[in-house]
């Protein structure tokens, strides 16, 4: 008699994680992974990795169970692109070119208070942690990203990037604050026959549907990485149908931990 081989039991996903199938207007679809963190019970911080490293590997090495990719970085050395502060101290980074350095969206964390705002809404040297990325996707529950619009200069300033990040559908990552006190960490798949990815405008619409009051875009493409419950939940791809096992090395992350 042949031995009975039972499938290996996979651990159940965390209860604060959802993976949703999103249908788009032209019939395409993509998978969106959302980790919802209760801010009353969660400590949020910005992490500057000591060297570029895949987020999943960094989380495993540092025993970090919950994190999402942070801001952009400059290739090939991985220097963070955009303003970066931890504990109120400005960290080494390459500034966005003017005038976009003064307006691009930021995550700001000060004494437990979390805000997603344009840089112009903060003082010159804010306390706490600051991660600048962008663009802002949602303000006061209304999408602020529209196809063809460029209020934060990502098309005009694309020379600092590999390409115009606002053009087309791609894997993407985002953070959103909801009206009921949650912080959503979202990553969408893309660059596959059955995974279309999202435009920035489509990402903004998805976030509003999920209850976002304020939201911002993070680094995306092959850098898109969401670790939840100690596991990488999305499928990073660098090019069409080209999976990056474990994800691309990144330079910053947003970390969530119990208070």
In short:
Residues 66-256 form the Phosphodiester glycosidase domain. The protein is mainly beta and 259 residues long. The protein has one domain (17-258).
Ordered list of secondary-structure elements with their pairings:
Layout: E1 17-23, E2 29-38, E3 42-54, H1 55-62, E4 67-69, E5 72-74, E6 79-81, E7 84-86, E8 89-90, E9 105-110, E10 113-118, E11 129-132, E12 136-139, E13 142-143, E14 172-178, E15 182-188, H2 200-209, E16 212-217, E17 226-228, E18 231-232, E19 237-239, E20 242-243, E21 249-258
Antiparallel strand pairs: 1-2, 2-15, 3-21, 4-17, 4-21, 5-6, 7-8, 7-11, 9-10, 9-11, 12-13, 12-16, 14-15, 14-16, 17-18, 19-20
Description:
The protein has a seven-stranded antiparallel beta sheet, with helices on one face. Strands 3-21-4-17-18 form a five-stranded antiparallel beta sheet. The protein is 7% helix and 41% strand. The protein has 259 residues and is mostly beta strands. It is globular and about 65 Å long. InterPro entries: NAGPA. It comes from Conexibacter arvalis. Residues 66-256 form the Phosphodiester glycosidase domain. This is Phosphodiester glycosidase domain-containing protein.
Give unreliable regions as ranges: none
Number of strands: 21
Mean pLDDT: 95
Q: What pattern of helices and strands is seen along the backbone?
A: EEEHEEEEEEEEEEEEHEEEEEE
What is the overall number of helices?
A: 2
Strand arrangement, major sheet = 1-2-15-14-16-12-13
Straight-line distance between termini: 54 Å
Q: What is the percent of helical residues?
A: under 10%
The number of domains: 1
- Judging from the principal axes of the Cα atoms, what is the shape? globular
- SSE class: mainly beta
- Beta percentage is 35-45%
Rg, rounded, reads: 18 Å
How can the largest sheet be summarized? 7 strands, antiparallel
């Amino acid at each position: 008699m042949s031995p009975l081989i039972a499938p290996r039991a996979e651990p159940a996903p965390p209860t604060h994680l959802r993976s949703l199938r999103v249908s788009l207007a032209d019939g395409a679809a993509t998978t969106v992974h959302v980790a919802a963190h209760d801010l009353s019970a969660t400590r949020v911080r910005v992490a500057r990795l000591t060297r570029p490293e895949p987020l999943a590997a960094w989380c495993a090495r540092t025993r970090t169970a919950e994190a999402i990719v942070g801001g952009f970085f400059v290739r090939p050395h991985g220097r963070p692109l955009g303003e970066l502060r931890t504990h109120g101290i400005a960290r080494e980074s390459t500034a966005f070119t003017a005038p976009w350095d003064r307006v691009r969206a930021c995550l700001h964390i000060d004494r437990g208070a979390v805000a997603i705002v344009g840089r112009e809404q903060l003082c010159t040297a804010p306390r706490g942690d600051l991660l600048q990325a962008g663009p802002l996707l949602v303000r006061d529950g209304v999408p602020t990203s529209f196809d063809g619009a460029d209020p934060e200069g990502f098309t005009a300033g694309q020379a600092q990037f590999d390409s115009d990040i606002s053009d087309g559908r791609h894997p993407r990552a985002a953070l959103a604050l909801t009206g009921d006190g949650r912080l959503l960490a979202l990553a969408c798949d893309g660059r596959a026959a059955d995974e279309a990815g999202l435009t920035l405008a489509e990402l903004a619409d998805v976030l509003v549907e999920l209850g976002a009051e304020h939201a911002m875009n993070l680094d995306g493409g092959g850098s898109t990485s969401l670790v939840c419950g100690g596991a990488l939940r999305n499928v990073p791809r660098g090019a069409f149908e080209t999976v990056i096992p474990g994800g691309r090395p990144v330079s910053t992350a947003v970390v969530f931990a119990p208070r």
